[in-house]
Amino acid sequence: MIAALVLVSYAAVMGTMGAATLTRSSWTTRAPRLGIALWQAASVSTLSAAVLAALTFALRLSVLNADVAALLHTCLTNVRTGYATPGGSVTTTLGLAAAVLITGRATWCVLDAVVRQRRELARQLQVVGVLARRDPERGFLVVPHETATAFCLAGRGDGVVLTTAALAVLRPEELTAVVAHERAHLRGRHHLLVAASHGLARAFPGVLVFAEAEKRIAELIEMAADDAARQRSHPAALAHALLAVTSGPTPRAALAAANRSVEVRVLRLLSPFAPLGSGQRLLITAVLTLLLATPIAIAAAPAILATQADYCLIGRAL
Amino acid sequence: MRGFGELEAVVMDRIWSLESAATVREVLDDLGNERPLAYTTVMTVMENLRRKGFLVRALDGRAYRYRPAKARSEYAAELMGEALANSGDRTGALLGLVQHMTPADVASLRTALEAASRERRMRR
């Protein structure tokens, strides 16, 4: 029972304050891929804590029979006492139901997001297929349109797409940078990251960690792709390309709230930032591992503690 | 089926340029000099396009006439609409280079860029 309560608290804290802390940390822009991994770990950690809480709550005492105890080389009563939850079969049913609901909801929403995205991609690729012509030397597709933009579509026959307006306004080095940026999205399968985080956010609306993860991952993949482009061209080239592309006629759909992320990206490209040292990376990786391991550790704690006891409780089963 | 991708683009392009519903024969003739194709090939491609929803056909006498379901510009506009959309229930299928900004944002970004380049030039 204590394990269940601790897990619930962990999930609650991680889901809210943990997310807020991660949002404030500035190192993510210096190591976007690590930042993405950490946001995913935070999401998985919160989710698994919730599911494990429900499961430990539901742990039927009769499941913990002599075989389990023998496995742990411990006394059965100790193990039972560790997990005991008052309420009998009612709490067990509730706990199991909660575990199934949470897992089911998460799985369903993530799969749904991935499937919808695939369908959308297939449709868009089809349209691009008949609209676009392929640039023979550089391999990307060109669509006739008066707004300069570039994007990529993952899937069968995937590719980088530019508009004729973009080709007209971008200089050669800027073009190289843009294509490298889009290719990085394709190589890194970033669309899947977007789909997964979107699915979780939709599954549990209002939970801060999932909502923030969706937003931050979307921003960080752009920075990760920017970094990949830097290996092929000067960062200023991509910065100028970003600006050239945004200066076209603003389409009606884009009149949303002010979007700071492009400014952040441009400034990030122009001012040199120190990449994370290996010590810092190690620390972050350790935190990541800790995030994933903690819920499991808490869930297993009563059983582990029971093995440590050098006495055996004599008492009636609860 | 897989090898037809490029052909589909070519045939669609022709039908859009012809600006009127065309039979398989007419498209074949239009393509004729540049591309030696079999009648059955063109017919298969046009049928594929119809199944995918790009062409609509109507019986005219004994032959089918095919016309585009939408104008080329309409497809382009739809695609670009999705590419440039800032928010909404996007599936994240399409990863655009940049979220488009309001003119005010663009102006402030330009200022930032110019300031940064000035700073770099002074440091040299």
Short description:
Chain A is mainly alpha-helical.
Describe this structure in words.
- The complex is a heterodimer of chains A (318) and B (124).
- Chain A is mainly alpha-helical and 318 residues long.
- In chain A, helix 1 runs antiparallel to helix 2, helix 5 crosses helix 8 (190-203) and helix 8 (190-203) packs antiparallel against helix 9 (208-230).
- Chain A has a four-stranded mixed β-sheet.
- The longest helix of chain A has 43 residues, at 89-131.
- Chain A has helices at residues 2-24, 32-58, 66-71, 76-83, 89-131, 164-169, 172-187, 190-203, 208-230, 235-246, 260-270, 278-308, and strands spanning 133-134, 141-143, 150-153, 159-163.
- Chain B has 124 residues and is α+β, with helices and mostly antiparallel strands.
- Chain B has helices spanning 5-18, 24-31, 39-51, 72-84, 103-123; strands spanning 55-60, 63-68, 94-96.
- In chain B, helix 2 packs across helix 3 (39-51).
- Chains A and B meet through helix 5, strand 3, helix 7, helix 8 and helix 9 of A and helix 1, helix 4, strand 3 and helix 5 of B.
- Strand 3 of chain A pairs antiparallel with strand 3 of chain B.
Proportion in helices of chain B: 55-70%
Largest sheet of chain B: 2 strands, antiparallel
Q: Most extensive interface: pair and counts?
A: A-B, 65 and 47 residues
How would you characterize the largest beta sheet of chain A? 4 strands, mixed
Give the overall silhouette of chain A. elongated
Please state roughly what percent of the residues of chain A sit in beta strands, choosing from under 5%, 5-15%, 15-25%, 25-35%, 35-45% or over 45%: under 5%
**Helix- and strand-based class of chain A?**
mainly alpha
Number of strands of chain B: 3
